Amino acid sequence: MSQQYSEAVETARGYYNSEDADNFYFHVWGGEDIHIGLYESADEPIATASARTVERIADRIATPLSEPDARVIDLGAGYGGAARHLSKRFGCQVLALNLSEAENQRDRQMNQAAGLDHLIEVVDASFEEIPAPDASFDVAWSQDAILHSGHRDKVMDEVDRVLKPGGELIFTDPMQADDCPEGVLQPIFDRIHLTSLGSFAFYRAQAKRLGWEEVEVVDLTENLITHYGRVADTLREQRDTLKGKVSDDYVERMLTGLGHWVEGGRNGYLSWGIMHFRKPA
Hints:
By secondary structure, the protein is α/β, with parallel strands linked by helices. The chain has helices spanning 7-17, 19-29, 46-60, 62-65, 81-90, 101-113, 152-162, 186-192, 200-210, 221-238, 248-266; strands spanning 71-75, 93-98, 120-124, 137-143, 163-172, 175-176, 213-219, 270-271, 273-278. The strands form two sheets. It has a seven-stranded mixed beta sheet with strand order 3-2-1-4-5-9-7, with helices on both faces. A two-stranded antiparallel ribbon has the order 6-8.
């Protein structure tokens, strides 16, 4: 299957499958959830803030998820924390689509341990080519994953295809600001092997192109700055305990990369928030 992935997706797949990355995200970033958190204080544990993000997004789509036989697709599911939250809270079926076999293996084990494997199917796949029939899902969900696609318009096309009429897309994504100057994000692009990021304007334009209704767009960029700073602090604190799990070279590169994200956010070049759209019924 991997030979069918686009170059950007294949690059992300190789990275997240590496032992360094798998151990870093599992042990430092939070394990259950590996996305940006919503912080009530700057020194809050990453896992607490990350769980709050899942709860906050889930609250916004509680109505469709409470329907009998509701089906959700999680695009870029990571270790499956969101899928477990949704299936446990609403009893809905979740297809957890993710490109990293290493993360998916941990995900399946945690689903089994939580007694939720009958509600969650974990699939090794790319969101640029979703292995599901048309009009399969009531809700499409994604947290900080679509940035890894070099063809974000194609991801939106695929979401449109697999959503039922009246279905909803709700997601977060680290993005560039709508008024971001040329060239200033190159250190970030180099670090994540991309040539661009999405933006609020880009996703709004995609929704308009597809005929979707904008339900809500909430700018929560300050949390991006807090989160990357918090991850960097936690990585420094845990550096000694990570010996043998994460290489020194990886740690140094990660700290440099996290610094670029914090700087880009403080300079007003980055954006992050919750975007919620609805496909016509």
